[in-house]
Design a protein that fits this description.
heterotrimer; A alpha/beta; B alpha/beta; C mainly alpha; A: alpha/beta; 4 domains; 7-stranded mixed barrel; 14 helices; 13 strands; 17% strand; rod-shaped; B: alpha/beta; Rossmann fold; 2 domains; 6-stranded mixed beta sheet; 9 helices; 10 strands; 38% helix; 25% strand
Chain lengths: 455, 248, 256
């Protein structure tokens, strides 16, 4: 038998060569023929990484997971040995960290070593790189909830401040209203009004207050904006953002107070052209207020409808003190829960009747108030105060009028005497019935409530 | 006869499935003698040959080659015995992937491991010359005619200078002239090398020319054993028919 | 009943035949010359068939996958798909089937012919173990040669795929090779290539059994050849199912 040894040689040799070429060309071959360096990382959850899973350095295929050490207790971590091409060693720094990634939506899981910073030292052989746990959806939600809670608190702060501001505006506008009404109802001519020092001062003060209020409001608004931006920048799911946007669009109602105020002032100041400067100023200021409150209202309205915050507003049960009926105030958990300090003004002691037959604060009443304010000293400046007016008269209408006027009296005194900002003082005519949390069932007179400050 | 017989069959029987091929066959053949086995097709002639070479083993009885029971000996001893046996198969049975020369070399390589390659080449050429194929050493079996194949097969059987040559129908399928050439070769071998011949054939004429003894097999039984003239006088009809020259 | 019995007898005989051959492969003396002869016969002589078939199949596969993948804009996947298909399955299977056709028939017919023309007896008369000389060498050669032929098939198909792709999209050889080998791993290449040794064992054993045990003249030759090809092809496909499962067991990453 003639054996063609050359043929056999060619056949076998070329097959072996092709086989080797195949081995060499195939992906993980580079690793077999190049130098390697081992790193370690620790993960609590391997997320489907198994020995042989790919390891990439900054996206570049670099090697594979060569071993996984299983922890000996539940709190332990899996220790993964990463077999990495030596060529990529330079990119692996001491501050490099490892995450579990997946190839596309349904692809294989692989480990990604994030390249470190230039400043950090090259990670030595056998170094243990920090493993960053993969973000699970449940974790995202948990984190989001955390953000929500934080946002809740922040919004709560803003809300309280905003409420104060709005109340202050109302008070200011009430003042202005009074003046304008005065003008209209024929208490002197425009010229008289402008030459009348007292009136002019009042107008100036009112405008100043309004400006102040606007500034405050703007500040609050900026804060709110920041919260919103912060909130949006947290990469929450698109859905949450959509909800926010929807809420924004849906709710374009102005805060009731500021709208009323605007209309009233326009009506009052528009046709008369009286007190040109003052009126213009007022109008301008109020336009600002309007804008600010509109924005504010928009955002808070949006937040109100945003499901994450619904709970918060529900808990408070009101959006502005102005919107609160006496009953709501009495039963409101927010005020009930406040560790408030109260000073009860007895009708007989604290109030007196002046020459014209109108009720005024008696010196005794003023003294009582001074005493209360004295206890909190300087912090009174930004102390939120609610003045509850009480009256137990035979007629419900009388009761209402009396309790309201009493609360106004006390509030005025607080504002003027201590130069307190009107925004910090809220009026609450309660007829005869006191809130259950106050410790009294009924009262005649007034009560100054120092609300616990919101941190 | 002080010499042990070259071949001795003692009550040999062989069955394939249900078919009794050989039934209680016994005979002896002395060294240097020529035996022709005659019989109709399928009467166990070829089986008898294969029993002699140890290719088949008897179901009962003994087949002794030079007093050795080759059915019982081990592979090594069988190989030693076969070293001295040449077997010419019916169709030559040349290995068709080998050339004629390589066919001859194979027994030398396999059974006689003492020869150098030069000696082997020499033996091959001498043997081919003896059968008249000295120019066909490098031909493939497929290129050979029937007679040439037979002669090449004979050459392969002879290449080890056997003391016993077993030939299965060496002349069948050949024309008269070629057949007598083969007969002459066998006679020459027997004379020159003092080789014991066992030839299975249908050809009575060549049997009468070559054989010292003729064995007649009929339906697995040995019905006649002796010289041609002895068998002509046999009282068995089949024996007389087969031995008579006219019966071809 | 007797058919069932015959069937089991046959299975038993073929199995024993294969085991005997495998054992024989480790028992000296080794028939080196005959083994190398079979390497030449089964390997070298099959090479043109394998290369031509692989190349053509590579072209065809590439054209088909292109037609489908273009719809999804995923032409870049063509080399990857080509190599994945051939390295994992097509290469080994088609090689085995082609060899079963060519070599199975040759072994079946060849051995039967040797039996009929008493060549096997002639070998035995030389005190040579014809089983070892003729059957063991063929089976071992099949086992050895099939992985080599599979490698040729794989690369021929890649060449065909590249040829086809180059003709249609003028892809560069380097890009073709890079994307062809990008996602293939050793586990996609080595185990499927080596599993063809089992196919080789099947081809050698089945056709060797039919060839070595048939002794029925020219009709037997024909039948042995047909039976060899049919049964070894069938067994290759059936056993492939098991082998793929086994590979997935040892390389779980390959099971998708």
């Amino acid at each position: 038998m003639k054996i063609n040894y050359a043929a056999i040689g060619v056949f076998v040799l070329s097959a072996v060569v092709l086989f080797s070429v195949g081995l060499f060309l195939i992906g993980n071959s580079h690793e077999a023929f190049s130098r390697h360096v081992d790193f370690f990382t620790e993960l609590t959850n391997t997320n489907g990484i198994s020995p042989g899973s790919k390891v990439k350095v900054s996206g570049f295929s670099a090697g594979q997971v060569s071993a996984i050490q299983i922890p000996d207790r539940p709190s332990g971590k899996f220790r993964l040995k990463l077999h990495v091409d030596d060529k990529l060693h330079k990119l692996v720094r001491e501050d490099s960290f490892v995450t579990v990634e997946s190839d596309g939506l349904v692809g294989d899981k692989f480990l990604l070593i994030h390249d470190g910073t230039d400043q950090a030292q090259q990670a030595p052989r056998g170094a243990t790189l920090r493993g960053q746990e993969p973000i699970e959806l449940s974790a995202v939600i948990a984190k989001m909830t955390g953000v929500m809670d934080q946002a809740n608190v922040t919004i709560g702060d803003i809300r309280t401040k905003a409420d104060g501001t709005l109340d202050a505006i109302s008070a200011t506008v009430n003042n202005a209203n009074g003046i304008v009404d005065g003008i209209r109802s024929g208490k002197g001519t425009v010229g008289m009004l402008l030459t009348d020092q007292q009136t002019s001062n009042s107008v100036k003060a009112a405008v100043g207050n309004a400006q102040q209020a606007t500034a405050n409001l703007d500040q609050v608004f900026v804060q709110a904006k920041q919260v919103m931006t912060d909130f949006q920048s947290r990469d929450l799911s698109q859905k949450a953002e959509d909800t926010l946007n929807n809420a924004k669009d849906a709710s374009r109602n102005l805060d009731q107070t500021s709208r009323q105020l605007n209309v009233a002032l326009n009506e009052a100041l528009g046709p008369d052209r009286a007190g040109d400067n003052a009126a213009e100023n007022i109008r301008e200021s109020l336009a600002n207020v309007n804008l600010a409150t509109a924005n504010m209202a928009e955002d808070t309205e949006a937040l109100k409808h945003e499901f994450f915050f619904r709970g918060f507003f529900k808990k408070r049960g009101f959006y502005s003190l102005q919107e609160l009926t006496p009953d709501q105030y009495r039963s409101n958990s927010y005020f009930e829960s406040q560790r408030s300090q109260r000073a009860w003004l007895n009708a007989t002691d604290a109030f007196a009747t002046d020459a014209k037959g109108n009720e005024v604060l008696s010196p005794a009443g003023e003294q009582q108030i001074d005493q209360l304010i004295g206890t909190i000293k300087n912090s009174v400046i930004d102390q939120p105060i609610i003045v509850e007016g009480y009256s137990n008269q035979a007629l419900a209408a009388d009761e209402m009028v009396a309790s309201r006027s009493r609360s106004i009296l006390v509030a005025h005194y607080l504002e003027e005497h201590f130069h307190l900002s009107a925004r910090n003082i809220g009026l609450m005519p309660l007829n005869a019935t006191a809130p259950a949390s106050s410790g009294k069932s009924s009262w005649d007179g007034a009560c100054v409530v120092l609300l616990a400050k919101v941190k | 006869m002080s010499d042990p017989p070259a071949i001795e069959f003692q009550h040999v029987s062989k069955t394939f499935g249900n078919r009794k091929v050989l039934v209680d066959v016994s005979f002896k053949l002395g060294k240097g003698e020529a035996l022709c086995i005659l019989g109709r097709s399928g009467t166990g002639k070829t089986v008898t040959l294969k029993l002699m070479d140890g290719l088949l083993k008897p179901d009962s009885g003994k087949v002794c080659i030079e007093s050795e029971d080759i059915a019982q000996v081990g592979e090594k001893d069988l190989s030693r015995v076969r070293r001295h046996i040449g077997f010419l198969f019916q169709s030559g049975a040349l290995f068709d992937s080998f050339t004629v020369g390589e066919n001859l070399a194979l027994p030398l390589h396999r059974l006689d491991k003492t020869k150098s390659s030069a000696e082997i080449q020499q033996a091959i050429e001498e043997t081919l010359k003896r059968v008249g194929l000295d120019h066909d050493k490098d031909k493939m079996p497929a290129e050979l005619s029937g007679g040439m194949s037979k002669r090449a097969g004979l050459a392969r059987a002879l290449v080890l200078n056997p003391t016993l040559l077993l030939a299965d129908e060496p002349t069948s399928g050949l024309d008269q002239i070629t057949a007598s050439e083969i007969d002459n070769l066998l006679i020459k071998v027997k004379k020159d090398l003092h080789t014991t011949l066992v030839i299975v054939t249908h050809d009575v004429r060549s049997a009468r020319r070559v054989a010292d003894h003729i064995a007649i097999l009929d339906q697995g039984r040995l019905v006649g054993f002796g010289t041609a003239s002895e068998l002509e006088k046999s009282d068995n009809e089949v024996v007389r028919q087969l031995v008579s020259e006219s019966c071809i | 009943m007797s058919m069932l019995r015959d069937f089991f007898t046959f299975i038993g005989k073929v199995s024993c035949f294969g085991v005997k051959a495998l054992v024989g492969a480790f028992q000296p003396p080794l028939e080196w010359e005959f083994f190398l002869g079979q390497i030449e016969e089964i390997g070298w002589r099959s090479l043109p068939l394998i290369l031509a078939a692989g190349f053509a199949l590579g072209v065809v596969m590439s054209m088909h996958t292109r037609g489908t993948l273009v719809q999804f804009g995923a032409e870049a996947m063509i080399p990857t798909l080509q190599s994945a298909a051939f390295f994992n399955e097509l290469g080994p299977l088609v090689t085995a089937l082609l060899v079963a056709g060519r070599v199975g028939a040759a072994i079946g017919a060849g051995l039967t012919n040797m039996r009929v023309t008493e060549q096997i007896d002639a070998i035995e008369s030389l005190s040579v173990d014809s089983f070892k000389m003729l059957v063991v060498t063929r089976i071992v050669a099949c086992i050895f040669v099939l992985p080599l032929l599979t490698v040729f098939m794989d690369f021929a198909s890649l060449a065909g795929g590249f040829f086809s792709e180059h003709a249609t999209s003028h892809i560069s050889l380097q890009l073709y090779m890079t994307s062809a080998f990008k996602t293939v791993e050793w586990a996609n290449f080595i185990p499927p290539t080596l599993k063809t040794s089992v196919f080789g064992l099947i081809i050698g054993t089945v056709s060797g059994y039919f060839g070595y045990t048939t002794n029925e003249g020219s009709q037997g030759v024909q039948r042995a050849a047909t039976n060899s090809v049919v049964l070894s092809s069938l067994l290759i496909i059936v056993v492939d199912v098991i082998l793929v499962k086994v590979i997935f067991f040892f390389f779980p990453g390959q099971a998708i």
